[in-house]
Amino acid sequence: MAKRKTLKAWDAINGAEGRCIATIDGDVEDMIYVKDVEATVEKEKSEIKVLGQTGTKHKANGWKGKGKMTMYYATSLFRKMMAKYMDEGIDTYFDLLIENEDPTSDIGKQTIILKQVNIDDINIAKLDIGSKELDEELNFTFNGAEIRNEFDEVAGE
């Protein structure tokens, strides 16, 4: 009987080993204050009834991209974007590069670029006497994604 493959422990990616970079109006912002970021693509589906069957089938007919990031309350960048929208009605879309690269792993790095990211909401101001360090959550949508680098195939052991 063949030995079953298992994941090498060092190929489990350390979540702190990576980077997040925003490109906003041509300016590059190394987002060193990000604690976590997560982007999700959700398919939109129609329910389809078929003659002669009692079950409901589903057909994909679109998608939407949404995400959130938690960051230390250490930049005014996104508050300025929201203020520009509030004051002038000018909205800002930007690209967000998210890279996983754990140097202890054998699977290399993965780089995803979220296209046309747009902020949903942000804390315009914040105080918290019970917190040693302030953080905030920023929700966003995006209109596309590019896989710039893929992880190598997991070899296992």
**Helical percent range?**
under 10%
User: Whole-number average pLDDT?
Assistant: 94
The total of beta strands comes to 8
Unreliable residue stretches? none
Cα separation of the termini? 16 Å
Measured on Cα atoms, how large is the radius of gyration?
Answer: 20 Å
Q: Which class best fits the helix and strand makeup?
A: mainly beta
Q: Could you explain the architecture of this structure?
A:
- This protein is mainly beta and 157 residues long.
- The protein has one domain: Pnp Oxidase, Chain A (Roll).
- The chain is 8% helix and 50% strand.
- The protein contains one helix and eight strands.
- It has one helix at 77-88, and strands at residues 18-24, 27-30, 34-49, 56-72, 94-101, 109-121, 135-142, 144-149.
- Strands 1, 2, 3, 4, 5, 6, 7 and 8 form an eight-stranded antiparallel sheet that branches.
- Strand 5 and strand 6 form a beta hairpin.
- The longest helix is centred in the middle third of the chain and has 12 residues, at 77-88.
- The protein is extended and about 65 Å long.
- It starts with 17 loop residues before the first strand and ends in an 8-residue tail after the last strand.
- 9% of the residues are buried.
- The model has no long low-confidence stretch (mean pLDDT 94).
List the topology elements.
Blueprint: E1 18-24, E2 27-30, E3 34-49, E4 56-72, H1 77-88, E5 94-101, E6 109-121, E7 135-142, E8 144-149
Antiparallel strand pairs: 1-2, 1-5, 3-4, 4-7, 5-6, 6-7, 6-8
